[in-house]
Amino acid sequence: MNYKYDTSMARADKSCIVKGDKYRFTILTSRMIRMEYSEDGKFTDDATWLAINRNFDRPVFSVKEAENSLEIVTDDLHLYYDKRPFSSEGLSVHLCGDYTLHGSRWSYGDKVSNIGGTARTLDEADGAIPIEDGLMSFEGFSVIDDSKSEILLDDGFMAPRKEGLTDLYFFGYGHDFLSCLRDFFHLSGEVPMLPRYALGNWWSRYFKYSEKSYLELMDRFEQENIPISVAVIDMDWHITDVPKEYGSGWTGYTWNKDLFPDPKRFLADLHRRKMHTTLNVHPADGVRAFEDAYEKMALDMGKDPKTKEKIPFDAGDKKFMECYFEDLHHPLEDEGVDFWWIDWQQKNGSSVKGINTLKMLNHLHYLDNAARNSHPLTFSRFAGIGSHRYPIGFSGDTVATWASLKFQPYFTATATNAGYTWWSHDIGGHMNGDHDDERTLRWIQLGVFSPIMRLHSTSNIFLGKEPWKYAAYVQPSMKRFLQLRNELIPYLYTMNYLTHTKGMPLIMPMYYKNEDYAARYVPNEYYFGENIIVSPVTSPSSHVTRRSETMTWLPEGTYYDFFTGLVYSGGKKIKMYRDIESIPVLVKAGSIIPTAGDYMNCHVENPHEMVLNIYHGDSGEFTIYEDLPDDPEKKAFTKVEYIMGDGVSSSIRVSVSGDMDVIPKDRRYKIRLNGVYDAEEVAAKGLNKEDYTYSYDDKARCLEISIDAGKEGCSSFEIDINLTDSSIRQMDITNMLFETLQAACISYNLKQDIYFRYINRKSDVQFLAEVYSMDVMPELYGAITEFVTAF
């Protein structure tokens, strides 16, 4: 087996190394130092699980050395070492800059107050679980121990590290978390590009489907106008009822022909429905004699198939792993399987000491898939820092409770601290719990604004996540959010590209871009891309207001609610109240969010109608990335700029560069300029008058411009707009108050009293004081206060 894994960049520049008989320091950047100690003076320059590229641009540093001391000074760090075995007295690093009350200093062996990273699995989690350390600390530094991680060989296999050595990486990036993450990706490997289809909706369930029932279900989704991009087939695709002598039926590689009589036809039918397919595989039990592939695999392994002896799973055996792919997986891929859900059963599965089985599976499955696909994919559990190279993460079988839902936004955002940016959760909860229509809806809403949107549940006949199985009052919102997920793919795919090329993760904790202490204390709030902030709803609605409350902190600036259009001034914490139609999703003024006009097809092709959602109040730009799924080397970049002038004038510029074959020739644009007054004039450069139209939506405070740019010479154009007023136009607060009171479960007289007090108010402050004195329920007072004081 030879996958030709590239380890050529593992060796650092010699000029960056300071070395003694038993120690070695490699100054990788001015803020990252590798620290090694070995009694025999032997060190590794091989690629390891953590570090595959130590070749950085040489930083500026100085060395001061005496007989029993060594100092290394960079622009950001000062290292002190006594040239003895590493100890708390003999090795320390000081940061230039104070990030704690007593300065930022690390000594060997210190416990770092780490912010946290992620965890291997959420299996059986019912609420919060402990998480492993990540790369970030508010103290300004962290240390990652690479002493025991595997060596990655250039043939794609792994080897154990030599025992008894110390191999540490010191990250001293202060609060510059994004730079820390980008340099980590340089060291540990870039995050791969996901295929476009992976960003749509996944359907998954541990359930005994048949070919007929599964396809009928997919047809029902299509009839309901709910797009599904990935069809996940859990373990019942293979034979599970096996003779007693073979043990359990968890592991299998042979289709259950009673359920799937013609697997190739079944997979082709899914592909015709514009879906990609993954099958679940539990490889721990090896290969047994009832499998169709047993005889060939036994012969290839040099065993007599007549003995019917089990072929044990062994990730440390190169020959076994070669047959594992060639005899078990490739024939199924030839039938139409696109990638694999690796559901390893947490057992020791390697004959080589020091080889982690899950790491080996993730590594080799990804390399194997890369041999067949331009955007390779695996679906498996987190195997420690460095796992970002093998997306996507399967987080495990959570309990279906509010506590589990409440933990997931924090868990997902904090995982970025470990470089793990593509988690896929069991949206709605996997098992146990109880039926709760609102909670399932809120989980779906979170899923739409998560890295991967995968509906999943166990085989309990009442636990399916089909929207039509839930109460009528939540169904429309469930469907609309699942449609929205596909509409967001142009934005998501661009962020996918920026994660891959720039180390800019889709999900970021609020403290990544804000030094304000408040950013540390909103654990369930996060950035969704560069300019969107999401504050998911993770608690049930009030019986009084029919709304749920979230505590949301907004940095300085002006923000629009993506759903309601309400405009907020930032620099404060705000209690936000949402009915079942939405969650707080805040977009900064000047932002441009591209979405697709056709939500049913944009997971497989670039949209024929591109919607440009622009938020008035500041200038801004966004460059949309697109490529061809079957030829990703063909790329196109659509730069969209919004330029606010000094007065009522503003301009929108659209220019396309790159390979024009990527852009559909009949592409149309719909521009939605939010938060504006009506336009006196709209004129276009680069377009004929008949190529564009515009209208004003008074209720939404939105100017809509429709453009047919699918004509020769229309790849670039500019729209000049003269508004009747250049200021931001707030939504109708009176109407919002009326709708809030209409839904509230309070006396009719109290509703009317509050409403007319607002109509006749002398000031907002006076009105709120009067309502407060009326002793209304706190949640109703909070909901009224939110939009009255928003901007």
UniProtKB/TrEMBL annotation:
GO terms for molecular function: hydrolase activity, hydrolyzing O-glycosyl compounds. The keyword Hydrolase applies. One of its GO terms (biological process) is carbohydrate metabolic process. It comes from the Bacteria. The keyword Zinc-finger does not apply. Residues 192-495 form the Glycoside hydrolase family 31 TIM barrel domain. Keywords: Glycosidase, Hydrolase. Residues 503-593 form the Glycosyl hydrolase family 31 C-terminal domain. Belongs to the glycosyl hydrolase 31 family. This is Alpha-glucosidase, glycosyl hydrolase family GH31.
